[in-house]
Amino acid sequence: MISEKIVVVDDDPRVHQSLKEILFEYQLISFMDAQKGLDYLLSPNGIKLALVDLRMKELNGVEVLQRLRRAGKKTAVMIITAYGNQDIVVEALRLRADDYVEKPFEIHELRERVKTILKEESRYDHLSRDPQTQIERIRQFIQRNYTNASLKHVAQEMCLSSQYVGRLFIKYEKYGFRGYKLKIRMEKAMHLLSRSSLDVSEIAYQLGYENPESFMRAFKRYVKSTPSDYRNRHSHHRRKS
Deepest in the core among 44, 118, 191, 238, taking most CB within 10 A? Predict the structure, then answer.
């Protein structure tokens, strides 16, 4: 794991220098601006571990953690704290922080904790190379991000090539990549048409279509019905039941 990259988000330059000396065998990517660090962690990358300070001027460590988990990022997060505030630490762990460490650092303890987390993440990464596991993770990603989940975007997010993702869908998913994405969109459209009062234009834009006409054409090809007819039929069934 000599070339393993670790992100450090802390607004104190002394912390970055100290961590570089303690974790000398790893490649540290340092951010003193919490928002820039968060933006980097949210972008497609192969980062397995981030060390994030609890107290920063703009975003605190708990907020960074919340946004990562809300976005579905599974990057391991170790919270750095100098305050010993157990309530905040408990909250961070509840939000799925992987560990925390107090300043000033105890060198041996910090090195062992980092090594343990990276070892576990590498084990998970090995499991994630199983094609069936990969295709399931990609399905879940598309279900959460169906409006902008292009093949290139998904491949970057999964740290895979576009060609490989395409082949996975040909092998394991009868719809193919584009067909699976369309299936998820249409299922969402049918749900909104039958259970919401949104008009067709609002539904089209919510599903990521550039205009209502494109959505209506896709819906009619897939469902063999116009969105309005589908809504009228299902509204009628609800009134009768």
Answer: 118
Nearest to 191 by CA among 149, 158, 143, 157: 143
**Same fold yes or no, 5-128 and 176-241:** no
Eight-class DSSP state of 54: S
Amino acid in position 27: Q
Alpha helices in the chain (DSSP H): 13-22, 34-42, 61-70, 86-94, 107-128, 131-144, 151-157, 162-172, 176-195, 200-206, 212-223, 227-240
CATH for 5-128? 3.40.50.2300
Residue 109, burial from CB neighbour count under 10 angstroms (0-12, 13-18, 19+): exposed
Question: pLDDT tens digit string along 130-167?
Answer: 788 788 878 888 888 888 788 988 887 777 788 989 99
CB atoms within 10 A of CB 63: 15
Q: Which helix (H) or strand (E) holds 30?
A: strand 27-31
Question: Per-domain residue ranges for the chain?
Answer: 5-128, 130-173, 176-241
Structure tokens at 221: 């090809």
25, amino acid identity? E
